[in-house]
Write a structure and sequence with these properties.
Layout lengths: L3 E7 L3 E7 L5 E8 L11 E2 L1 H18 L7 E8 L4 E5 L9 E2 L7 H9 L3 H8 L8 H11 L3 H6 L3 E5 H10 L3 E3 H4 L5 E2 L4 E2 L1 H6 L9 E3 L2 E6 L2 H4 L4 E7 H8 L8 E5 L3 E8 L10 E8 L6 E10 L3 H9 L10 H6 L8 E3 L17 E3 L7 H27 L6 E4 L6 H11 L3 E4 L4 H14 L5 H7 L2 E5 L5 H18 L5
Parallel strand pairs: 1-5, 5-14, 9-12, 15-21, 21-22
Antiparallel strand pairs: 1-2, 2-3, 4-7, 6-8, 10-11, 13-14, 15-16, 16-18, 17-18, 19-20, 22-23
Length: 498
């Protein structure tokens, strides 16, 4: 009898593997970081082979450390950093260049040109997305136009495109597939017909021969090559990391909202079986799909994306050397009562929702001779909460509801100082679950449902447990004053780069 689901959580800065048992408990985990490549200002790349090697290594490590065989694993669920774009040669299986990461801004000019041609409403209508360099479609176009011979090879059907889920599945079992949640992040997928869209492909000059087959996020898509783990294991769950986290938080009913504090910050609201078109610069996306045949049954989401959240803490560590380890940030920030007027807008890679300004750049304002590294650290944490407040404001306007609570997860959700400030600045209770690794858990749940490891979504919702609730304690006047100061600082950061 199988004992575990194996979740592969392939993130922006590290690859992780986690084993879950039937109670949803973590039985083992392994993690490895990989290199972040910055060839030019505003460019961010990954070595796709390094991603694969680290992901395979941690999967093998967690099995070995828990004395688990392939036969003990009911299925594999994959959650992945979204929008990051890989182009590989079908014959050799090798990437034709580095992967372009979701944070990368090099295609902002392509998006500008499409907007000037009046195409932005068409993309939003069909894909639910804002026309921005964040998404995969313009990244594919750039790779085809800038890697010598790539376009010619693509037109002959010799190349394959995929987001990281597709790349890992290709390496695990040879299939070329993606799920609806990842497809909905490409600017190429129509979320109403649930198919690749010929008109959008033509606008972005992407040959259809590059594209993976789109499948449901919960269902068996193949079995791993036996030599990888000593026997075949079914690959049964796929979801973009934020959709996976939403499922792992048991936000399966319309109106439920979660926020993940990872490299970026991502708030998703379940809106049910019908997509809501945003009027406040959020995006509409597919959450997950069930069913053996497409289009299946899908839940849709409203989403707001913050590009720099936990990555701000990394920058304080690696870029400034203010801290030696990310875990030190809370104590340093708590050593001062407030930021002493310092406001940090971490728009290193532009601003995401609701601003969508690819030309904004990181800005720290309000410093005096009395400013210390502790003030900057506290302002860095506050910036994460402020960006989240901007998104929630837009989301409540779009959905026409007032949020009752915000479920949180991700690495920075363990920071009590940040979570209390988040509750204060939102004026909404913030609820942290016992298991904050909800991205991996959601991928595991999707796989487990497909292979019968769990019986129903109701069973999964009953497993969710609260660890701590943070209640708002800030006065109305103080909240308004702080948000007004934040928005003044955002104006200073906007449209900085040319």
């Amino acid at each position: 009898m199988t004992k575990f689901i194996l979740a592969l959580d392939q993130g922006t800065t590290s690859s992780r593997a986690i084993l879950f048992d039937r109670s949803g408990r973590i039985c083992g985990s392994a993690q490895r970081e990989f290199r972040q490549l910055f060839p030019q200002p505003g460019w961010v790349e990954h070595d796709a082979n390094e991603i694969w090697q680290t992901q395979l290594a941690v999967a093998r490590q967690v099995l070995k450390e828990n004395a688990a065989q392939a036969s003990d694993i009911a299925g594999i669920g994959i959650a992945n950093q979204r929008e990051t774009t890989v182009l590989w040669d079908r014959r050799s299986g090798e990437p034709v260049g580095n992967a372009i990461v979701w944070q990368d801004r090099r295609t902002a000019g392509i998006c500008d040109g499409l907007r000037e041609d009046g195409k932005a409403p068409l993309f939003q209508e069909k894909t639910g997305l804002v026309l921005d360099a964040y998404f995969s479609g313009t990244k594919v176009q750039w790779l085809l136009d800038n890697i010598p011979g790539a376009r010619h090879k693509a037109e002959r059907g010799e190349l394959a495109f995929g987001t990281i889920d597709s790349w890992l599945i290709h390496k695990l079992c040879g299939a070329h597939v993606t799920d609806t949640s990842n497809a909905s992040r490409t600017l190429l997928f129509n979320i109403h017909t649930m198919q690749w869209d010929a008109e959008l492909l033509a606008l972005l000059t992407v040959p259809s021969s590059l594209l993976p087959e789109v499948v449901a996020g919960s269902g068996i898509v193949g079995k791993t090559f036996p030599e990888l783990f000593g026997g075949p294991i079914a690959i049964a769950g796929i979801a973009g990391d934020q959709q996976a986290a939403t499922f792992g938080q048991a936000c399966t009913e319309p109106g439920m909202v979660k926020n993940t504090y990872g490299t970026g910050c991502f708030m998703l609201m379940n809106t049910g079986r019908k997509p809501i078109t945003s009027k406040n610069n959020l995006i509409t996306t597919v959450g997950w799909t069930f069913g053996e045949r497409m289009p299946g049954e899908s839940d849709y989401m409203l989403e707001g994306s913050v590009f720099m959240a936990g990555a701000v803490v990394q920058w304080l560590r690696d870029g400034l050397g203010i801290i030696r380890d990310s875990s030190e940030i809370e104590a340093l920030a708590a050593s001062v009562p407030d930021t002493d007027g310092v406001v940090f807008v971490p728009s290193f890679a532009g601003l995401g929702a609701p601003y969508w300004d690819a030309y904004a750049r990181g800005t720290i304002v309000g410093m005096t001779r009395g400013t210390t590294k502790a003030h900057i650290a506290r302002a860095a944490l506050a910036s994460i909460a402020y960006q989240t407040a901007d998104i929630l404001d837009a989301m409540q306007k779009d959905a026409g509801i007032v949020l009752q609570e915000l479920r949180v997860d991700g690495g920075a959700a363990r920071n009590d100082l940040l979570m209390q400030f988040q509750a204060d600045i939102l004026n909404v209770p913030v609820v942290r679950p016992v298991i904050t690794e909800t991205t991996a858990l959601g991928a595991a749940y999707l796989a487990g449902l497909a292979v019968g490891f769990w019986a129903s979504k109701k069973e999964l919702a009953e497993q969710w447990q609260m660890e701590r609730r943070f209640t708002p304690a800030m006065t109305v006047d103080e909240r308004a004053e702080r948000l007004a100061l934040w928005r003044r600082a955002v104006q200073r950061a906007q449209a900085w780069a040319e």
